[in-house]
Amino acid sequence: MTGAGDRPIPNMALRRRRDDQQWILDWMVKTTGRDRQFFYDGRTLPAAVKSYAMIPREMEKEARHKETLAKAAEERGHHLTACELYQKAVTDYHGALHPLPYEGNEESAYLYRKMEECFHKVVRYNPTPMEWVEIPWEGKSLPAIFYKADQKVPGPTVFFCNGMDVPMEIFPDPLNNPFVARGMNVLAIDGPGQGIALHRKIWITADNWQRAGKAALDYLTARPEVDPGKIGGVGWSMGSYWMMSLAAQDARMKALATGGACYGAKKGIFEMCSPHFKKRFMHMANMEDEQAFDEMAEVMALTDEEISSIAAACLMIVGEYDPMTPLEEAVHIFEGLQGSREFWLMENDGHGSGASAHLGGYPRFHAVADWLLDVLEGRKPSHFDRKVVLHPNRGRGPYAADAPGFFLPERLQVE
User: Dihedrals φ, ψ of 146, to 5°?
Assistant: First the structure.
C-alpha cells in the first residue's frame, strides 16, 4: 500500500531499531532549532519548525523567497547580488531535502530540480570561473564542479569530498572559495549516494565511492590546468573515511586534509547520533534490510593495513568530543600513519565544519587551504610529525608549539 508521493504507508512494525526515537528527535528539533549536530548552540531552522517532518516545507519557503529575490536582482542586472542569493537558495533547498529519506516522488524531484536550477545560475554569474562537468564511471555519469584558478601553468589542485549526503553545491563555498583564492583548482563531486548522483539512483555501496574517486582522479590528471604531481585532497565527515580509504589505494594524492572525523567504526554515526543519519544512509544505499546494512557498515572503517599504506602527507582535524569518533580512535589512526602527519585537536569541539573560535572565527577550510598549499608547493619539511592543541578564544591555533600528547597527564603540559 502506498500513500502520497508513492511513499509506503507503514504498519505497526518499525523498519529500524531506533525509529521509536522519532519523538526525541522531534523534541530536539523543536527545542534547539537544529536538525542535526545538537552539540552546538544556535538555530539553523525557521522558528515555525516544531517537528522533523515540518522541515522540508518550511525550508522550501525560505529557499523560494531567496530564489524570488535572486530573480528580481537578475532582472535588474545585479548579477553578483543574484549569484549570492541563488547560492543561499541552494543551501536552503538542500536543507529541505536532507530530512527526506526517500526519492522517486514529486516532492523530492521538485526540490532537486530547484536546487539544480539555482546552482546553474551560480555557475553562470560567479566571478570565480566554474564549470559543471560529468565524469564517466562504470557506465554512469557523476556530476562534478571544476573551479579554475588563475594560473598561467598547470598548478596545484584539490579533490574535494563532502560529508555523507552533503552535495557538491554546498562546499567549498562558491562565493568564497578558499582554495581558488590561493591559486588552487578544485574538483568537487557528487559521489555515489550523494546529491544529484543519488537522484540519478547511483547508490552507495561499501566500496564504490573509492572507485568513483579513482575516476575523478583520472579526470583531473587529464585536464591541462592540473599539475598531476600537485594533487591534494579534502574529506570531511564521512568524506574523511572515503578519502583516506582512497588515498590508501591511489597514491596520486600527495597531501590529504580530513576533519569531522568519521574514520573508523560507524557505531557513532549510525547508532549513537541522530537516528536520521542511519535512515538517510540506508536510503543512499537503497537498502531496506537493517541487518544487511549493519553488515555493510561494519566493513566501512579504515584498517591498520590501509592506514599504514597511505603515502600522502596527512592532516587530521578532530573535535575533542566528536560524537561520531572517539578521540582515542582518531589518535590510533593518526599513529598508524607512516608518512608525514599532523593532528589538530579542537579543544571542547564536536563534529564541526564551519567557522571556529579555535581559529578566531576563521573558517576551517581556509586554514586547510593554507596547509595543503604549503605541502603541495614544498613549503613544509620533507617529513613532519606534529600534534597541536587548538584552544577556543586563545593561543596560536595551528601555529602553536607541538603538544606532547592529548590525554592526561601529558595533556597538562599544554594547558
Answer: -110, 120
